[in-house]
Design a protein that fits this description.
Blueprint: H1 3-20, H2 36-55, H3 61-73, H4 80-113, E1 118-119, E2 125-130, E3 144-152, E4 169-172, H5 178-184, E5 192-197, E6 219-229
Antiparallel strand pairs: 1-2, 2-5, 3-4, 3-6, 5-6
């Protein structure tokens, strides 16, 4: 799919974003808008702005405006193919490196502020609140566990609404994403552990729209391990 068609598809998303962001609750200041075309243009600009903030707040508005003007005047500095390749490389490598750097700094500062916080080789940070019965631990993917847990952003805002229930989640260990699975193995039945899960051990660059989990988002888990049913190795 050519980049220009991707941009066209994004226009539909922009319209939905304006509604989702509450843009319909205020009217544009009409004293600064000449006519209906100006109003619609301003609204499209608002949508672009909202999506830039969601995607990458470090983008420069003046460069975005220049890109729009150059396309409209037929004076693009890059071909569509070059733009596509550069954008994919940026999202794959540059953003990844910046996210990893931010997460590593956050976890380093966390360890320094609380000597009970520890790290695993994978990068997972954890703090055991209750160790539990270490004779009853989940060790292999076929083990069944019963847990309750709460998931929040680093800001404290709850995000995993489906899983943030008071009732018990009972399933085999392999059903959990890597960071959560690793954290459950650290405690025994009756234990409680806090986890700070880097994005690559959670929902990665895709995130999870249904749970409002953003791409490249590190998450905080508070897990209670209520029961472990071990399956014997064959």
């Amino acid at each position: 799919m050519k980049l220009r068609y991707i941009f066209s598809a994004l226009c539909v998303v922009f319209a939905a974003t304006l509604v989702a962001c509450g843009g319909g609750s205020k009217n544009p200041n009409k004293s600064h808008l000449e006519d209906a075309i100006d109003s619609v243009s301003y609204i499209v600009g608002m949508n672009v702005g909202y999506n830039i903030l969601k995607m990458d707040s470090t983008l420069r508005a003046e460069a975005v405006v220049k890109g729009i003007n150059d396309v409209l005047s037929g004076k693009e500095l890059m071909s569509v193919e070059d733009a596509r390749n550069y954008f994919l490389a940026y999202m794959t490598y540059d953003v990844y490196d910046r996210v990893r750097g931010y997460e590593e700094q956050f976890l380093t500062d966390l360890e320094a502020s609380d000597n009970k916080v520890q790290r695993t080789q994978s990068g997972l940070a954890y703090k055991v609140l209750v160790l539990g019965d270490m004779n009853k631990t989940a060790t292999i993917d076929r083990d069944t566990v019963a847990i309750t847990y709460r998931v929040t952003r680093l800001s404290g805002e709850e995000v995993d609404v489906v899983a943030n229930r008071e009732d018990t989640v009972r399933t085999v260990l392999r059903d959990f994403m890597p960071g959560m699975k690793e954290g459950i193995k650290l405690i025994g039945q009756g234990g409680q552990v806090l986890l700070w899960v880097p994005s690559e051990l959670a929902y990665g660059s895709e995130g999870d729209k249904e749970k409002s989990i953003r791409p490249n988002e590190m998450l905080h888990y508070d897990i209670n391990l209520l029961e472990v049913k071990s399956r014997r190795r064959r």
